[in-house]
Amino acid sequence: MTEYFKVLSDAEFDKLKDAISLITVYIAGADGDIDEDETKWAEKVTKIRSYNLPKKLASFYEEVGVDFHDRLENYMSSLSDLETRNSTVEKALTDLNPILVKLPTKLGAELYSSYISFAKHVAKASGGFLGFFSIGPKEAALLDLEMITPIIWDEEEEV
Q1: How confident is the model at residue 34, as a pLDDT?
Q2: Cβ–Cβ < 8 Å for 29, 82
Q3: Considering Cα of 89, then 136, then 70, then 84, what sign does the dihedral take?
């Protein structure tokens, strides 16, 4: 666990990392079928984020990437039908709310935003021009990850 997340238990940090695989399964499977392009793109985005984000989040995504593929495969095989998958993922993502508020506000807000952004990247991975950059209506309906309470950071409040 990176130093920025030390306020959390190992189990809580693990749930935050697990959210990336859950979001992938949730968004990629919105239309009932998890497309290989979406899962491959999600894995790529995870790797890119491990070196392309500010240090706090880059280190988080670096840890996510260690076993992202295995976690993703586990969820894809154990959550095969759409209704069960969605209810399981929505419950797990709802469980992030008390964890996110334990983080420093700025970090919680950045992580929340990165989850939303990640969902959009997964959604754009299939469809559109040459299979990229188009979000279908079923995916679009889930992109806000409404079960996760937004964390708002106001720069002026934390001076």
Answers
A1: 87
A2: yes
A3: positive
> Domain spans of the chain?
3-158
* The token pair that represents 70 in the structure block: 């295995």
Rounded alpha-carbon distances, angstroms, from residue 97 to 3, 59, 108, 111, 151: 20, 21, 10, 12, 9
**Contact criterion met (CB below 8 Å) for 61 and 49:** yes
User: What tokens were used for 150?
Assistant: 């937004």
CA angle (119 as vertex; 106, 135 as ends), nearest 5: 140
Reported as a single tens digit per residue, the pLDDT across 107-124 is 999 999 999 999 999 988
Residue linked to tokens 């959550």? 79
Quote the longest CA-to-CA distance of the chain: 48
